[in-house]
Amino acid sequence: MSKLGSTWGRVVMKFRRTEKAAGEEQKIGVARPEKVYLKALPLRHLEDVETIKSEVKSGNILILKVSPLAKKSVDDVKQAVDELIEFTHGVGGDIARLGEERVVITPSFIRIWREKAASPEGALPTAA
User: Fold this and answer.
1) 78-86 long-range contacts, Cβ below 8 Å, gap at least 24?
2) Which residues fall within 8 angstroms of residue 37, CB to CB, at 6 or more apart?
3) CA distance 87 to 51
4) Would you say residue 65 lies in a domain?
5) Residue span of the structural domain in which 32 resides
6) Is residue 121 part of a domain?
7) CATH at 83
């Protein structure tokens, strides 16, 4: 597994462990907009996290490509993903890994389907 893949695995497992605790927190939520867009965005800089948050607050579904930032700094990817996980939990949304280079983030009114069986690595896979 690549360095980015193993990093993502650790981040996703951290996400899974905190998922129950986040459910107990008060959630801000996102009002369902008239139109919902599916947007594919690259994560190039840590500053892009604020744009991503704004898009999710607007009710859009995002597919993020993290490899542009990972080429610069794996630590920045960890920081960005940790911040996005915390934010997503705060608004009642959902977040999941799609392979080694992508993450999907949804607003509170959309859930990501996950298989119930554990994969060989122990993490629950997403539908993709």
Assistant:
1) 78/7, 78/11, 79/46, 80/43, 80/46, 80/48, 80/49, 81/8, 81/11, 82/11, 82/14, 83/49, 84/49, 84/52, 84/53, 85/11, 85/14, 85/15, 85/18
2) 60, 61
3) 12
4) yes
5) 3-106
6) no
7) 3.30.110.150
User: What number of other Cβ atoms are within 10 A of residue 53's Cβ?
Assistant: 18
pTM of the model: 0.70
52-108 tens-digit pLDDT: 999 999 999 999 999 999 999 999 999 999 999 999 999 999 999 999 999 999 999
DSSP 8-class letter at 120:
T
CA 83 from centre of chain? 9
Order of strands across the sheet that contains 102-106 = 38-42, 61-65, 102-106, 94-98
Beta strands in the chain (DSSP E): 38-42, 61-65, 94-98, 102-106
Residue 69 lies in a domain: yes
Q: With 90 as the cut, is the pLDDT of residue 33 above it? A: no
Q: Which has the closest alpha carbon to 49: 80, 94, 12, 85?
A: 80
* 3-state SS class at 96: strand
- Residue 84 counted as domain residue: yes
